[in-house]
Amino acid sequence: MTQPPDERPDDGLTAELRAQLEEGAEEARRAATAFEHRRAARQLVSAYEAGRAACPEGYAVVAAAVDWEHAGIGRARPRRPISPAALQALFGRHLEPLRPGRQVTEADWERGLAWALGERIPREPLLGLDPGLLDPDGPHGLALLLRCRWSGEEGFEPSAALVDRARDSGYRLAPTTWQFMLDQLRPDEAFQVGHAALQQGNLEVTRAAWTIAMQASDAEVHTRWVRLPADSCDELAEHDPKGTQTLRQRQTSWPLRSLYYPDVRSQAACNLAVIHEQAGEVDAAKGLYHWVVDRGHLDLGPAAMIALGRLCGRQGRVEEARAWLGSAAGTQHPEYAPAAAAELVSSLADHDGQLAARAALERLRTAGNAQLAARAAYLLGTLLSEWDEDEAAARDALEQAAASGVATAAPAAMVNLGVLLARHDDPGQVAWFARATDTGDSEIAPVAALYLASWYQEQGDVERTRDAYQQAMAHEHPDASPRAAYLLGRLQHGRGQVEDAWAAWQQAVDARHPRYSVLAAIELGDMLMRRRNWQHAKAAWQQASQQPTLDPLAAVQLAQVCDDWGQPALAEAIYQRVMNSGHLEGGPVAALGLGFLYESRKAKGNVARARALYQRVIDAQHPTASPIAARRLASLNRRTGFGQPRRRRSIASGQGRR
């Protein structure tokens, strides 16, 4: 049988492949042009701003083109430039406010377009950029507006420097401009336009754009739709070999109706559901999540199931919530199935008790999906350990998770095994903490290193303690690393290694941790003060006191140290900051400390301030600070001739007096 000839041109490429290559080359040329413009951003932005007065018509043309890009249309694929007709329509909207009372004419448009296309900045060779990407016969200078041809359409493109400026300055499109964009919108651009509107805080436009994307057909948003055979992925492999490999690796049992890459419609529906949910429109949100589940997408389907489970749980519909979470767990999706399992177990533990939760996890830990089984084993071992039930079963489950090699379960299971053994002072804990540290996991390894350091310090092994602290510091973990730096500084200072302690404490201070940065500043400042290095000591205290968040009790300690070393102004500022935070524990303690400070300073008005602060602490009824404040106020009143402090009158005592 004679085969039909393969319709390929002389270069051997199919029309589809040639179109993809041409699109890639077009994107590379555009990226090179954008790089040129960003290099000259300052000059281009200055030229644009000067045009507001020098040539309002040209300024309006460029502003209209920037609006098109800032609305997100330029981010969509295939890329569409702003057409001359659309540019002229937006141009008029920008020019009218610049020249109130004057009519916009065709001559204004032509003059403005000529100004916008004029070359402003000379082009220069760019180091590291392929000259072939730039047109050697093109213009000799950079303009604020460029003619372009994207996807076969002629139009205009604003300078990338001006688009960046609009984004970075927080510029927001006017409502009438957004309506114009929605009227011009194609379905395959709607998703990106919705994101742009959301970034600018316009939820109304976001909803409208994402609704357009969701209600479009798959063909209109360029979604590839592949029906999967029940027993293989062969059909998908013909269309998307890489996607097929990913799917096989996931080994999902989620009953796919079809596979969509990318599924813009389902993503838009999920985003709309979140907006409805945040607005309290629960029924609308549930309807959208149901629609996504029915679409049967590999990733978004299980995600929507979890969202439905959470919604039902908040409504008190426990059984329905469990059904959705169970369905999500049953998909064996590597990310969403373990998350659903965790929430399902939490629901079972809260309503049906520990036995039901344990039974569910026992079933899930035997799942065929390695990620789900490992996560379930980790959760089971952790819960049994927390409940102090069946320690042998807890160890067995945690060892299963640790041996799985699954990154989301194994390192944490190793740490929990170490903690379990540490309860009995079992030296075997060291091996598990060391294994967890060696995984290099950015979250778990530094915590495991801290456990190792604690063990080695108890054994008197200073060198290994130091090494473990340094391992924790190297990960730059937001909590474990500053803590390790603080503790390492104390270790080194205790051994007389002043310079090393200084370096460790300074690293902790620089981390700006609410607690350990402050504690490190206390130690560092005290050490420097004793060595008569007042300048660096005060700098460390000021740095710690000015960080964004402060642990109230640590901050009170810092204020006390500042006061002890003759820095009352800094101490007063720290006390005031803690008091203003409204912290129930730290606030009264800070007020008490500030009262001490005022009482010790004999300046005019300080006694009255101290008296008011002591009364404030008494009224707070703090278990330790209030009795101290009452004694200090009574003593102060005796010395200054005032009466006894006011104590809060209980309702019962008031009724008795009446």
Structural class by helix and strand composition: mainly alpha
Strand content: under 5%
Average predicted local confidence, pLDDT: 85
Assign an overall shape.
globular
Distance between the termini: 114 Å
Strand runs, count: 6
The amount of helix comes to 55-70%
Taking the sheet with the most strands, its summary is: 2 strands, antiparallel
Total helical segments: 33
Radius of gyration: 34 Å
Question: Could you give the order of strands across the largest sheet?
Answer: 1-2
* Low-confidence segments: 1-10, 226-233, 249-258, 650-658
Describe this structure in words.
- The chain is mainly alpha-helical and 658 residues long.
- The strands form 3 sheets. A two-stranded antiparallel sheet has the order 1-2. It has a two-stranded antiparallel ribbon with strand order 3-4. It has a two-stranded antiparallel sheet with strand order 5-6.
- The relative contact order is 0.03.
- 67% of the residues lie in helices and 4% in strands.
- Mean pLDDT is 85; it is low at 1-10, 226-233, 249-258 and 650-658.
Provide a brief overview of the structure.
With 658 residues, this protein is mainly alpha-helical. The chain has helices at residues 15-39, 41-54, 56-70, 84-98, 106-117, 160-168, 175-184, 187-199, 203-215, 234-239, 241-250, 264-278, 282-295, 300-314, 318-330, 336-351, 354-364, 370-386, 391-404, 410-422, 429-438, 444-458, 462-474, 480-494, 498-510, 516-530, 534-545, 552-564, 568-581, 586-600, 606-620, 625-640, 651-657; strands spanning 119-122, 141-143, 145-150, 153-158, 224-226, 259-261.
